[in-house]
Design brief:
Layout (H helix, E strand, L loop, with lengths): L2 H28 L2 H21 L9
Length: about 60
C-alpha cells in the first residue's frame, strides 16, 4: 500500500465522518430538536407531577 493510497483512504474516511456529523446536525435542525427537547422536558415534568399527586396520567407518557 503506497503513501498515496493511504492518504486517500484517510481523506475518504475523514470525509465520511464529516458527512455523517453533518447529516446528524441537519437531521436535528430539520426535526426541530429544540421542540423535541422541550417536549421531553415537559413530559418529565408531567410525570413528576403525576407521581406527586399519585394519579395516573390523562394520556400515556412517551
Amino acid at each position: 500500500m503506497g503513501p498515496e493510497t493511504m492518504s486517500q483512504s484517510v481523506a475518504a474516511y475523514g470525509f465520511m465522518n464529516l458527512t455523517f456529523v453533518e447529516c446528524l446536525l441537519q437531521g436535528f435542525l430539520n426535526n426541530g430538536w429544540i421542540e423535541m427537547m422541550t417536549t421531553l422536558l415537559a413530559g418529565q415534568l408531567i410525570n413528576h407531577a403525576s407521581m406527586l399527586r399519585k394519579q395516573p396520567l390523562p394520556f400515556p407518557a412517551g
